[in-house]
Structures are given as structure tokens and as C-alpha cells.
């Protein structure tokens, strides 16, 4: 028997559905930055106000894992991001709680570099190879901020990707890889800073990418025992244009036409997630069994990984991934909304927003599976399902005592019973939509709606549940997470409109 | 079943302040205004009051938590004062406390007073409260109109009512209350409005526009209760007695169990059934002369007509449009303007409703006096459709 192959076993992806039209940005800023008028083409993904690196990673992971309640096979979680919401609170721990992973999962945050996604993947490969993990989940996600009227504002996108690493159902076999660590400072973000400080582009291009990337490719191919001309997919996040990426491939001995779409036109660069975003996109759109792929991420040197797609790739055909996420889009032409969602504008939220959002951490911990995992209760005697769980059952016909077992709601089908669009209550995206959501298999929750198309909501509409920011406690730097309902027809309406 | 409260307690006197944006008055002045009117009506001395129940909701304006604000404002003779709070139904709870005290024999004469000073909070609508440490971590940070508006979506889905028909029916609810409120010198809002005005008003929480929402007002209302025998001994004629007092409180069924369809008040139906039984009313549509219901929003009033079994289920829209609840209709509703136009100083509202029924039963309602009403019903709600407390009180002429 041949040596057991290790590699990617599944993928998932998530790009927020809002697509900021770059023309709206460049035109609004033309008075101050006329030099960007020529860049006003295409669109970039834009997170809703209630999305961050954690919530996007959760969405990508759910796409990968599917609706099964049992996720006990996941024994390691590596989360790569440069925009983790918490500096000291395990961000991957929040993700694990939202995904209702078991407490024995090894959860690790990998940060501080654009390579965080590929480095997370390398850590997972190492752990599986060493036999310390069997099913490792790798998530990469970024929600980066840029100053108004900056080039980054146009280049950046928000998004997340997920891949799992293991030995069963390998869709892309890991052949080898390399990391070059070089303190080449193309940009940096210092302690306490919200924004990157960038050095001159020409230097980054000529002295950075042009010299470092080919060396990383060579090291990885040597390690994998693969010849450059065998490579069918050259995956490198880069904002210097497709032509430049093709030149880099060529410089590395790889056919220029293998340079894969950087998604600059319809997504923007999703930071530390982008190499995995591009990888998932390639696996969905172009890769065929037997194809060899090189995945690169530049930053403080360069990570390079070599994979070979297998005939198991078709097992992922039902995944939304990146391709599906890109198809689910809503054009956003309101640049001020983008600035507002990104906290770049001081706006009048009204007196109702003065309410203190202090979170009782004791209460949060005591109700952790309820709040983070949307876990309610199911009566073992009557089968009645409810949220939240309680010692005495809500069942009006039989108030059984201490009969409830945990019951997960997040992946269940549900519909809207009642709703309103509220212009009075404080909201980051008025009107505030919320209502009673009723689950097909029992149970109901009065909950916030998000990603809503105003004017399309009605009773009876199906919803999908998503993990989002509930409230931001600006006074203390804390944020609450909970689940919200996304009316499904509004998504379909928009996809059709886009088509 | 218990014998009930019917005819055991009489109303000796009532008072109510002018409601509205009372920039001139703090909670103390409002309390005194309602109290002095009630005392004059009752014709008693402060030393004759044995105990008091005090209702107020918002703590921020300094009238909450304990019994002292009432005792201090009225200079009560160191008697027992109990502060009660049951969301927007607190006023009815104060009255229930006083009535039960008299019925039990523990007090000969008891005072119930509710007050709310909302216009010192800086908000246009109701201020945002804190709901403990768990609920804010998951429940929507919505508003009262957003919660009550949901009745409309569920009611429409259940009964197949179009958006337009519903919008016009709830508009008529408000038009009727404005017409009534215009005739009430103590009302907060005294302007008549048209259906078109109501329907075209700015949206607050879909489908509720500005005129679908009640006034946010300052005000106080008070009742002094005793036994019918003492009332007679004190020289009272046309004695008004309490026929029923019921309170039903949600236990989570509406918000957690799929048997509730979101289009009605589960508690209101329970409280109404019990109240009719207590009062001995067989057919409420024929026997109830008039009502003051908790019309915090127009849609609340509309569905409540069914929950009180006055309109048949699914028929409230038709009854409303037919003018059944108008001042000249079969069962006039909100004859004083209701929460909508008299106003809604939270802790006082339940007592304000009883005040109007009391005046009408005594023939003292001035320009808005109805012809010979016998039975008045008040319906006072606190919370939201999916989780609430609902009080139904019936008063009428002694022996009726």
C-alpha cells in the first residue's frame, strides 16, 4: 500500500453579498483623489455592519461542514487573520463555540501577516502529518479597513475561505511546500493603528514580489518533487494586475496562462484569506483531477504549497464556496454606507444608541451554547423543541421537569411568522428588521434579521440563520455575537436581478 | 372557583391630571393633581385612607422603586404604600391591590395612584430600558412599535387581509380615537385627523405610522375605593362597583411554543374569559356598554376586539370599518381618546381607563357622555404580544 496521502478533504467559502461599486468611491473622492478616477472599475466585496473576520470565517466553515449536527470529528482549528476582533480572547475559540465543536478541539489563532491563511494551512498539514490531528479545519478571513480616498480602499475586499486537512476523501493531495521568511516591509500596521502604512509600489513589485516569489516557488517545487512545467494553476494574491502575475509565473518557469484570477474585478483582495479564497475558487472553477496547483502568499517573505487535485474533487460540487458566494451579490452604490459600516464616519445614532451594551461575562458563559451555538432544548419525553432550554418545559400539555437535552437550531429550516421593519429602535442599518422565526421541526425564536432587502419581507418567507455581531460595546471594546435570520427570497431576488 | 370580587368594592372617588407634555409639572405635581381631585370626589380626609398602592414604571425620573415618592408627595399619614410595577399594566395593578385590600377587610378605604413623568427623559418616544443580563445578549434590540407591528403581519397572513385593507382599518382606529380625544379637555392630543392623514404619516415600524402610535405623555390618575356599605354611609349615590379584575401573564408559550400564531393576545383571551365569568357576563358583545382598551398601537386595539370576544375572530377589520366601536357605535371604545389621544403615562394608564368608565357610569363625562352605559370594561396590557401581562377589569353600576 502506498503511503497514506494527506491533503485537503473539503472546502467552503464566504464572500459578503454587498459589492461596493468602485465608481461610486472614485467619483465621491474625485475632488481629493482624481488620480483614482481610472480605478473606478468593477466592484469589491463589502461586509455588512454586523460582519467581521470571525463571522465570515464561521460562514465559510459552515459551508465546508454542511448541516450535520455531529461535528465531533473536527479535532483542530487553525484560524488565520490580520483583523481578529480580539487581541486577547481566543478568536478561534469563538468560532469553535459558534460551530459547536467539542472542547477537545485544538484551536489556534495565527495572525500578524498576510501569510496567516497559508501559515494556518501549513500548521494543519504538519499536525495531520504528525498524527496529532485527524481532521483539521483551516479558516482564513479578513475584514480590513482602509482610509477614505486610499488605493487600499479600492483594492481590498472582505471574505473568508475554509479548507479541511486530513487523510480521508482527499480532494487535493499535499505534495510539499516551503516558507521563506524575509523581513521585507512592504506595509505594516503598528500597535494601536487601524490602517496600514504602505511603502512605494514600484519597490514592492520589483524588489519584493519579483525576487521573493520565484525563490519560494522553486523551494516548494523542489520540496514536492514537481517540475515547474507540470503546474497547471499558479495561485498568487497580488494587486499589481493580471499581467504582472503572469510574468511572475513565467519567471518561476510556470506557463503564464496558469496564473489564476486574483478576483480583483469582482471581489477585491481579502487579505490573509485571499490565497485560500483563490484556491477554493480555482478548485471550483478550473482544477481537474491530476492538476498540480501552487498556492502562494506574499508577506514577510512568502509561503508556497503544492497540491495535486484528485478525482474526489467532485464530492465538493454542492458547496457554495467562493464561486457561489460571488454569484450571490447585491450592488452597493452608497459609498457613505460603506464608510459608516466601517466605522469611518461619526454619525448621529440617536439617543436610543446610548443604551449601555455591557455584557455580563458570567451570564454569557453560563448560557454559552445557547448564545454562541444557538442550542436550545428538546424534551426527551415529548419531543417538544424550544429555545431557550429550560428546566420546566414550555410544552403546554405537559410541563415536564429536567427532561431537556441540547438541540441545535442553526442548521434547521425556518420561516417568518411575524415581522416588522422598525425605524425607531437604534440600528446600524435602519430600518431594523426583526420578527418571530418558526422552525419547521419545532421551536421558535424572536430574532434580528440581517442582509434584508427592504420591501420584500413577509410572513411565511424562509430564512437561513447566520452568526453575526449582535452589539458592539464601544465603551469597553467588546462585541456580542448571536444568530440572525436572513430572508431567503431576498437573496434569490437579488441573484436573479444580478443575472 | 373563587367567589370573585363582584360588587364587593365600590369606587368612592377618582381623579386624573391633565395628560400631555407637562413641561410645567414634575411627578409630584402630577400626583397631587390627580389625588386632590379624587379626594374632593370622595369627600374624605387623608387620615381616613388606610393603605395605598402606587404604580410607576420608569425608574430614571426618580419616582420608582419604593413607596416613598407617593407618601412624600401627598404627605400621607405614614400609612402602608406599596409600589407596584407590571410594565404598562401597572395602573390596573395598583387598583387591584387597593380593591383586594378593601375586599379582604384589611382596609376600609384604600388609595390607588399611578403616575409617569416621561417627558424628562429626553426621548421622543419611550426611553430604552435594560432587560437584565441575558436577554440583551440575544433578543432583538427593538422597540414597542416594532414588537406590536408584528401582529399585523401575522394577522394578515392568517386571515388573508391585504396590506392596504389592514392599513386603512388601523387608520380608522386612530381616526376614531382622535375624534373622541378632541372632545376631552384632559387629553394630550385634541386634534381630529382623517384616514388619509393617518395612512400617509411617516413610518415608525411597518405597517405602523406615526398616527398608529399612542401619545407619550406625562400624567397621573387616582382611585379611592371602599366597600359599598361605607360608600353609602358616606352619602354616595349612583354607586359604581368593581365587577371583575383579572390578570393573565404569559408563561413562554407565545414566544417558545409553535401553537401561537402571532396574530392575537393569548393572555387577553384568558383574562377576558375569566373576567366575564367573574362579572356574570354571558354575551359581551351585547352586555358591555363601553370599553377603554390598551390601544398603545392601532393594531393592538384592532386584534383586542377579537380577544375580548366582542368581534368574532377574523371580523375585527369589518367591525372597525363599520363604525361598531365609534362614539356612536354599538360598543364605543376609547371614548376618552384612549392611550392614542388621552395619552399614555405608563404607570397611570390603567387608572385613567377606569376613570373614564367611572365618569361615564356616573353621567359626568361632559361632551363625550354616552347614553346610559351600564357596564364598562378596561383592558390594560404590559409587555409585547409574544410575552406580556394582560389585565381586564369590569366596573358597573352597583347591582347591574
- Structural class based on helices, strands and sheet pairing of chain A: alpha+beta
CATH class of the largest domain in chain B: Alpha Beta
Strand content of chain A: 25-35%
By oligomeric state, this entry counts as heterodimer
Number of individual domains of chain A: 2
CATH class of the largest domain in chain A: Alpha Beta
> How many helical stretches of chain B?
15
CATH architecture of the largest domain in chain A: 3-Layer(aba) Sandwich
* Dominant shape of chain B: globular
CATH topology type of the largest domain in chain A: Peroxisomal Thiolase, Chain A, domain 1
**pLDDT average of chain B, as an integer?**
97
Q: Please outline the major beta sheet of chain B.
A: 9 strands, mixed
Fraction of residues in helix of chain B: 25-40%
The CATH superfamily name of the largest domain in chain B is Thiolase/Chalcone synthase
CATH-defined superfamily of the largest domain in chain A: Thiolase/Chalcone synthase
Order of strands in the sheet with the most strands of chain A? Answer: 5-4-6-7-1-8-13-12-11
Major interchain interface with per-chain residue totals: A-B, 53 and 45 residues
Approximately how much beta-strand content do the residues of chain B carry? 15-25%
N/C terminus separation of chain B: 22 Å
Briefly note the structural class of the backbone of chain B.
alpha/beta
Task: Describe the protein in words.
Chain A is of the alpha+beta class and 499 residues long. Chain A folds into 2 domains: 7-341, Thiolase/Chalcone synthase (Peroxisomal Thiolase, Chain A, domain 1), CATH 3.40.47.10; 351-374 and 409-498. Chain A contains 13 helices and 22 strands. Chain A has helices spanning 22-28, 53-65, 91-98, 116-129, 151-155, 201-224, 242-251, 274-285, 321-327, 335-341, 361-366, 368-373, 488-498, and strands spanning 7-14, 18-21, 43-46, 76-80, 106-110, 136-142, 159-166, 172-181, 187-188, 197-198, 231-235, 292-298, 301-309, 330-332, 375-379, 385-386, 404-408, 414-422, 432-439, 444-448, 462-473, 478-487. In chain A, strand 15 (375-379) and strand 16 (385-386) form a beta hairpin. The mean pLDDT of chain A is 96. Chain B folds into 2 domains: 10-120 and 218-233, Thiolase/Chalcone synthase (Peroxisomal Thiolase, Chain A, domain 1, 3-Layer(aba) Sandwich); 143-214 and 242-397, Thiolase/Chalcone synthase (Peroxisomal Thiolase, Chain A, domain 1, 3-Layer(aba) Sandwich), CATH 3.40.47.10. The mean pLDDT of chain B is 97. The longest helix of chain B is centred in the middle third of the chain and has 19 residues, at 163-181. Chain B has helices at 27-42, 59-63, 68-74, 90-104, 144-159, 163-181, 195-199, 228-233, 253-256, 266-279, 284-287, 298-307, 316-321, 338-341, 349-361; strands at 10-16, 51-55, 80-84, 110-116, 203-205, 208-209, 219-226, 240-249, 290-292, 375-384, 387-397. Chain B is 36% helix and 18% strand. In chain B, strand 5 and strand 6 form a beta hairpin. With 400 residues, chain B is of the alpha/beta class. Classes of the chains: A alpha+beta (499), B alpha/beta (400).
Amino acid at each position: 500500500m502506498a503511503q497514506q496521502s494527506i491533503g485537503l478533504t473539503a472546502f467552503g467559502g464566504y464572500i459578503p453579498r454587498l459589492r461596493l461599486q468602485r465608481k461610486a468611491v472614485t467619483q465621491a473622492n474625485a475632488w481629493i483623489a482624481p488620480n483614482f478616477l481610472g480605478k473606478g472599475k468593477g466592484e469589491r466585496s463589502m461586509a455588512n455592519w454586523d460582519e467581521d473576520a470571525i463571522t465570515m470565517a464561521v460562514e465559510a466553515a459552515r459551508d465546508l461542514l454542511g448541516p450535520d449536527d455531529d461535528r465531533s470529528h473536527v479535532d483542530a482549528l487553525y484560524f488565520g487573520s490580520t483583523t481578529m476582533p480580539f487581541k486577547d480572547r481566543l478568536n478561534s475559540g469563538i468560532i469553535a463555540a459558534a460551530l459547536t465543536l467539542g472542547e477537545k478541539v485544538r484551536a489556534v489563532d495565527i495572525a500578524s501577516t498576510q501569510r496567516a491563511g497559508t501559515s494556518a494551512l501549513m500548521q494543519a498539514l504538519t499536525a495531520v502529518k504528525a498524527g496529532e490531528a485527524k481532521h483539521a479545519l483551516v479558516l482564513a478571513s479578513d475584514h480590513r479597513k482602509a482610509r477614505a480616498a486610499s488605493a487600499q480602499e479600492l483594492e481590498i475586499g472582505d471574505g473568508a475561505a475554509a479548507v479541511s486537512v486530513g487523510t480521508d476523501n482527499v480532494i487535493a493531495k499535499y505534495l510539499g511546500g516551503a516558507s521563506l521568511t524575509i523581513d521585507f516591509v512592504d506595509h505594516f500596521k503598528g500597535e494601536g493603528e487601524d490602517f496600514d502604512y504602505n511603502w512605494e509600489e514600484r519597490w514592492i513589485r520589483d524588489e519584493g514580489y519579483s525576487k521573493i516569489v520565484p525563490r519560494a516557488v522553486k523551494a516548494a517545487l523542489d520540496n514536492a518533487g514537481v517540475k515547474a512545467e507540470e503546474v497547471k494553476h499558479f495561485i498568487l494574491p497580488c494587486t499589481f494586475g493580471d499581467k504582472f502575475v503572469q510574468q511572475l509565473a513565467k519567471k518561476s518557469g510556470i506557463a503564464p496562462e496558469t496564473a489564476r484570477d486574483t478576483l480583483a474585478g469582482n471581489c477585491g483582495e481579502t487579505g490573509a484569506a485571499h490565497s485560500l479564497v483563490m484556491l477554493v475558487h480555482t478548485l471550483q472553477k478550473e482544477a481537474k483531477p491530476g492538476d498540480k496547483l501552487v498556492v502562494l502568499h506574499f508577506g514577510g517573505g512568502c509561503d508556497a504549497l503544492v497540491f495535486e487535485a484528485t478525482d474526489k474533487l467532485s464530492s465538493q460540487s454542492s458547496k457554495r464556496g467562493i464561486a457561489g458566494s460571488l454569484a450571490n451579490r447585491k450592488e452597493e452604490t452608497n459609498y457613505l454606507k460603506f464608510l459608516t459600516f466601517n466605522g469611518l464616519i461619526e454619525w448621529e445614532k440617536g439617543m436610543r444608541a446610548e443604551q449601555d451594551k455591557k455584557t455580563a461575562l458570567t451570564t454569557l458563559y453560563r448560557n454559552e451554547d445557547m448564545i454562541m451555538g444557538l442550542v436550545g432544548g428538546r424534551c426527551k419525553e415529548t419531543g417538544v423543541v424550544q429555545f431557550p432550554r429550560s428546566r420546566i418545559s414550555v410544552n403546554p400539555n405537559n410541563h415536564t421537569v429536567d427532561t431537556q437535552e441540547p438541540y441545535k437550531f442553526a442548521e434547521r429550516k425556518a420561516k417568518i411568522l411575524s415581522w416588522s421593519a422598525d425605524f425607531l429602535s437604534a440600528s446600524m442599518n435602519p430600518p431594523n428588521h426583526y420578527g418571530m422565526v418558526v422552525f419547521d421541526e419545532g421551536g421558535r425564536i424572536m430574532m434580528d434579521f440581517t442582509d434584508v432587502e427592504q420591501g420584500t419581507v413577509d410572513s411565511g418567507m424562509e430564512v437561513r440563520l447566520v452568526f453575526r455581531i449582535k452589539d458592539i460595546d464601544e465603551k469597553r471594546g467588546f462585541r456580542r455575537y448571536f444568530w440572525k435570520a436572513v430572508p431567503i427570497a431576498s437573496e434569490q431576488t437579488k441573484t436573479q436581478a444580478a443575472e | 372557583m373563587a367567589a370573585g370580587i363582584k360588587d364587593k368594592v365600590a369606587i368612592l372617588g377618582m381623579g386624573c391630571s391633565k395628560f400631555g407634555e407637562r413641561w410645567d409639572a414634575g411627578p409630584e405635581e402630577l400626583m397631587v393633581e390627580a389625588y386632590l381631585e379624587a379626594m374632593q370626589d370622595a369627600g374624605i380626609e387623608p387620615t381616613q385612607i388606610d393603605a395605598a398602592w402606587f404604580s410607576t414604571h420608569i425608574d430614571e425620573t426618580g419616582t420608582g422603586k419604593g413607596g416613598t415618592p407617593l407618601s412624600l408627595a401627598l404627605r400621607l399619614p405614614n400609612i402602608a404604600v406599596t409600589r407596584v410595577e407590571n410594565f404598562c399594566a401597572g395602573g390596573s395593578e395598583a387598583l387591584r391591590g387597593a380593591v383586594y385590600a378593601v375586599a379582604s377587610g384589611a382596609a376600609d378605604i384604600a388609595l390607588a395612584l399611578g403616575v409617569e413623568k416621561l417627558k424628562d427623559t429626553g426621548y421622543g418616544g419611550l426611553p430604552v430600558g435594560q432587560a437584565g443580563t441575558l436577554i440583551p445578549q440575544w433578543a432583538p434590540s427593538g422597540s414597542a412599535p416594532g414588537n406590536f407591528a408584528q401582529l399585523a403581519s401575522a394577522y394578515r397572513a392568517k386571515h388573508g387581509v391585504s396590506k392596504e385593507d389592514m392599513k386603512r382599518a388601523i387608520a380608522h382606529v386612530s381616526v376614531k380615537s382622535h375624534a373622541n380625544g378632541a372632545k376631552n379637555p384632559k387629553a394630550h392630543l385634541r386634534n381630529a385627523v382623517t384616514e388619509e392623514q393617518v395612512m400617509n404619516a411617516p413610518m415608525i415600524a411597518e405597517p405602523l405610522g406615526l398616527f398608529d402610535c399612542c401619545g407619550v405623555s406625562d400624567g397621573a390618575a387616582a382611585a379611592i375605593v371602599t366597600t359599598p356599605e361605607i360608600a353609602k354611609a358616606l352619602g354616595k349615590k349612583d354607586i359604581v362597583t368593581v365587577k371583575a379584575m383579572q390578570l393573565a401573564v404569559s408563561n413562554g408559550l407565545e414566544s417558545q411554543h409553535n401553537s401561537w400564531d402571532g396574530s392575537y393576545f393569548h393572555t387577553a383571551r384568558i383574562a377576558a374569559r375569566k373576567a366575564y365569568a367573574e362579572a356574570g357576563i354571558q354575551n359581551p358583545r351585547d352586555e358591555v356598554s363601553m370599553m377603554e382598551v390598551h390601544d398603545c398601537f392601532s393594531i393592538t386595539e384592532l386584534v383586542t376586539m377579537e380577544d375580548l370576544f366582542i368581534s368574532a375572530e377574523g371580523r375585527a377589520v369589518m367591525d372597525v370599518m363599520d363604525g361598531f366601536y365609534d362614539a356612536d357605535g354599538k360598543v364605543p371604545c376609547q371614548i376618552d381618546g384612549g392611550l392614542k389621544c388621552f395619552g399614555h403615562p405608563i404607570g397611570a394608564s390603567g387608572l385613567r381607563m377606569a376613570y373614564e368608565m367611572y365618569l361615564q357610569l356616573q353621567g359626568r363625562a361632559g361632551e363625550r357622555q354616552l347614553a346610559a352605559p351600564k357596564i364598562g370594561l378596561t383592558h390594560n396590557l404590559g409587555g409585547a404580544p409574544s410575552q406580556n401581562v394582560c389585565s381586564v377589569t369590569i366596573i358597573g353600576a352597583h347591582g347591574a
